[in-house]
Design goal:
The chain has about 350 residues and is of the alpha/beta class. The protein folds into 2 domains: about 170 residues, Pectate Lyase C-like, CATH 2.160.20.70; about 120 residues, Alpha-Beta Plaits. It is built from 9 helices and 16 strands. The strands form 2 sheets. Strands 1, 2, 3, 4, 5, 6, 7, 8, 9, 10, 11 and 12 form a 12-stranded parallel beta sheet that branches. Helix 6 runs antiparallel to helix 9. Belongs to the NDK family. It is found in: Cell membrane. Pfam families: TBCC.
């Protein structure tokens, strides 16, 4: 049996003008812009301030190695970032779709957002972190963590390009692969730590063109207390369902409640199934089941004396037309928080 394409290919060849060479085939990968690895690397620098502006990395892998006394700012999203053998450096990384891996670094101060965070053979690092999964340290000492707190106009879009949610941040839930009995290889930075005292804004004219802010109220990532000891026995769970203004409503709610003296403990954005809703919302589940198909929910835990009543008042006053789940009582709130975050952590593999 003959080949189906044989006659067609032969006819095409015969119809080609005599003496004219057949053009080589063009494949999609031939038309891609060639990538120069040197554009995505800082290596062997000393006493320099360097960086990449928004749009200059555009999802590529990046490497930082053998740098000393440098200030390094990557104001763009990237695929992965590896930092090797750096000493006394300040490093800012925009959203990283995959992993950020520090190896054999010391005396560095960093602010970064990523899917996975790993530290190995390092000492004396300070990291203001947004991480979607549990941060991991190994064979490292004196590693201190704080919550990521940064703003520039392009940052929210870069989070989306990197596939990261600003609400999934486990910055304080550290796993130490090599614990030492009686010692703690990591700790949390003081809650009143000023990020600019650790990771200063750039001073070069090129990088100053990026409109930066480290104010907590402007941070793209909500500033949470994480696993610090709670100030009160009373917490409240608020769950916002997917819609056109969900993120804006979540931000507004955070601003209102923090402004009234309550503390944001943790946040989460996750998809829920009917059985998950039954477990978390219990008798109220039927009210929310139709909303689950619209997309992921955003959950916020607030803490402080009177948190439940405070959340209910704000939701009723400002968000009366928006369907939200709010803990009904102080007694129920603790169970609400535990039920939701246990489910969410299991689903996200934390």
């Amino acid at each position: 049996m003959g080949c189906f394409f044989s006659k067609t290919r032969k006819a095409e060849k015969e119809s080609q003008p005599e003496g004219e060479e057949e053009r080589p085939k063009q494949y999609s990968w031939d038309q891609r812009e060639k990538v120069d690895p040197k554009d995505y690397m800082f290596s062997g620098l000393k006493d320099e301030t360097v960086g990449r502006l928004p749009g200059k990395v555009a999802g590529q892998q990046f490497l930082i190695q053998d740098c000393e006394n440098c200030n390094i700012y990557i104001f763009d999203h990237s695929a992965t970032v590896t930092i090797d053998d750096c000493t006394n450096c300040v490093i800012f990384l925009g959203p990283v779709k995959g992993s950020v891996f520090f190896r054999n670094c010391r005396d560095c101060k960093c602010a970064l957002a990523c899917q996975q965070f790993r530290v190995r053979d390092c000492r004396k690092l300070e990291v203001f972190l947004c991480c979607a999964t549990q941060p991991i340290i190994e064979s490292s000492t004196n590693i201190k963590f704080g919550c990521f707190q940064w703003y520039y106009p392009e940052l929210a879009f870069q989070f989306k390009d990197a596939g990261l949610s600003i609400f999934n941040n486990t910055w304080s839930n550290i796993h130490d692969f090599t614990p030492v009995s009686g010692e703690l290889n990591w700790s949390l930075l003081p809650e009143d730590a000023v990020i600019q005292d650790h990771v200063p804004l750039p001073t070069t004219e090129e990088l100053k063109a990026v409109r930066l802010s480290t104010e907590a109220s402007r941070s793209i990532v909500p500033v949470s207390r994480g696993q610090r000891q709670k100030n009160s026995d009373e917490s409240c769970l608020v769950v916002l369902f997917a819609g056109d203004y969900t993120i804006a409503n979540a931000r507004k709610l955070i601003d209102e409640l923090v402004g009234k003296g309550f503390f944001l403990v943790q946040t989460k954005e996750v998809s829920m199934k009917a059985e998950d809703a039954q477990r978390v919302f219990r008798e109220k589940a039927p009210d929310f089941l139709p909303l689950l198909n619209k997309g992921p929910v955003i959950a916020l835990e607030f803490n402080g004396d009177g948190a439940v009543e405070g959340c209910q008042l704000i939701v009723n006053e400002i968000f009366s037309g928006t369907k939200m789940f709010v803990s009904e009582s102080k007694d129920a709130a603790s169970g609400d928080v535990d039920s939701f975050y246990n489910f969410a952590d299991i689903q996200m593999g934390i």
